[in-house]
Amino acid sequence: MAERIKTDVCIIGAGSGGLSVAAGAVQMGASVVLLEGHKMGGDCLNYGCVPSKALLHAGKSAMGWDAAHDHVRQTIATIEPHDSVERFEGLGVRVITEYGQFISPKEVQAGDYVIEARRFVISTGSSPLVPPIPGIENVPYETNETIFDLKTRPDHLLIIGGGPIGMEMAQAHRRLGCEVTVIEGMKALGRDDPEMAAHVLDALRDEGIAIEEDAMAAEIRGKAGAIEIEAKDGQVFKGTHLLMAVGRKANTDKLNLEAAGIEPTRTGIKVDASLRTTNKKVYAIGDVAGGLQFTHVAGYHAGVIIRSMLFGLPSKQRTDHIPWATYTAPELAQIGLTEAEARKTHGDKLEVARFDFAGNDRAIATQQTKGLIKVMIVKGRPVGVSIVGPGAGEMITLWALAIANRLKMGQIAGMVAPYPTMAEISKRAAGAYFSPRLFDNPMVKRVVGFVQKFIP
């Protein structure tokens, strides 16, 4: 006989979003049950953001292969307690280490438990997408869930997929001594501004990484240590190991959504602006909600639904203020519209302010002058920002604040940054927007000349 539990909130999945909801809800007085059938912390801690950034750091620091993987494991181990069963039980959350599946619109079964809740939250995340390329079933390959466990260094790593995961892993492994070939069916880093992406791709090619674009994989063949990928145009790429990095798929298979009256989509679960599913008792957040697939988005979603679930207040998600970054060297960061998107949306109303890192004194002093910021501006407000260069992922946060709060360029220009800092680059970009208005404006010069005649 299954044990029945009644609770205010039942969360399925203990990744970033689920943990944020659990911690917030229980500390505000709600009773919370958290279900996780695999690892606490989800993909980000165990297979994604944390190990990938640790491996990138190891490559930059010229660690050996074994030392690099020790660093990855130690990094995960250091963060693990924050996401652990013990910590969340200490907060008052009932943690059940089983997968959850719906058995009715208001009940979920997890192992020997049936949970009835006022509200459910699906935060099951996503998994690596492995497309059905002919031959893939006969060849060993890695994904982001296995690549960090390789015991020995690959002689030549083939990577299918030129997005952020593929490019980060390409650079990390190249710096750890591997030959690397990236095979991309369209354009590498194709989601980003092409001008900015070119800075990254040039830098990676300079490090000896082969980046093959417009090379759609048509067949994979071979065996461990001797793998071949043939593209549709007949090119053949040879290597010893293969990493599949072509994208992600939402984790919905175990949920039995139909029993709960929840409608799936091609990319995950159908949600409205408040992140409610077609079952109004159930929310979906993070990757499984079918939108932007970033850890910080899952955390943001958690805040959106807590306002609605716990306080009954209207709360809707927005996406225009969500930044993202690729942590290669140089880093590549984006928020809002790219230049091409902004031109398509706003036409002649768009202005673009640019500033080169080479004009920043701190960049000159630290030999970090290869970089660029572009700010897309409409009626005095930024609608998008693209940054490529050292620390771009840190710099984009100022613009996330600006766009989230609909600040104007004058407020950015009015900021005083300590000298010399890379943060001045954003202020100088705002200055580049105002300079033509002040220094190339005949009316301004006439007014100044007139006023000077009357100032004692």
UniProtKB/TrEMBL annotation:
Positions annotated to bind NAD(+): G161, G162, G163, P164, I165, G166, M167, E168, E184, G247
InterPro entries assigned to the protein according to its UniProt record, in alphabetical order: FAD/NAD-bd_sf, FAD/NAD-binding_dom, FAD/NAD-linked_Rdtase_dimer_sf, Pyr_nuc-diS_OxRdtase, Pyr_nucl-diS_OxRdtase_dimer, Pyr_OxRdtase_I_AS
Disulfide pattern: C44-C49
Signal peptide span: none
Co-factor binding comment: Binds 1 FAD per subunit.
Keywords from the named record: Disulfide bond, FAD, Flavoprotein, NAD, NADP, Nucleotide-binding, Oxidoreductase, Redox-active center
Source superkingdom: Bacteria
GO molecular function, one term: flavin adenine dinucleotide binding
Family statement: Belongs to the class-I pyridine nucleotide-disulfide oxidoreductase family.
Name this protein carries in UniProt: Mercuric reductase
Species this protein is from: Aliiroseovarius pelagivivens
Gene coding for it: merA
